[in-house]
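Bug #77: duplicate submission created two jobs. Keeping one. Sequence:
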Amino acid sequence: NNLPQFVAIYNQDKNSLSDRAIAKVSATEASMESLRNGDSSQIYLEDAKSENYWVIEEDNNNYLIPKRNIKIDSHKLETVQALFDCPGYYETYSYFQLTKPAKVSKASSGYWQLEERGELSFS
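Kept job's structure:
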């Protein structure tokens, strides 16, 4: 299991990586619509002022992690679960550990595509 180095840092202090984010993104409306229709095959994220996720670059890979103070409620859960496996999740519990960041790739200017889901562990 070869996790990027920033994972341990993130789990200790979720604020510590905000200055390392090369993009601050949220899922596109089209991706959300596809998810609602049961299609999670292609999820795109775009640069957003009301970002929910950060893109972190390490060892020539681009990773997606939740921003420091994300509230995973029923509105965001669908997107979060499209991007991350969420073992142990239940609605009143918002504390999580990043067990594996998602992988993204640059799609076009301001857009990122999900390549591989990550995992958030709730306990």
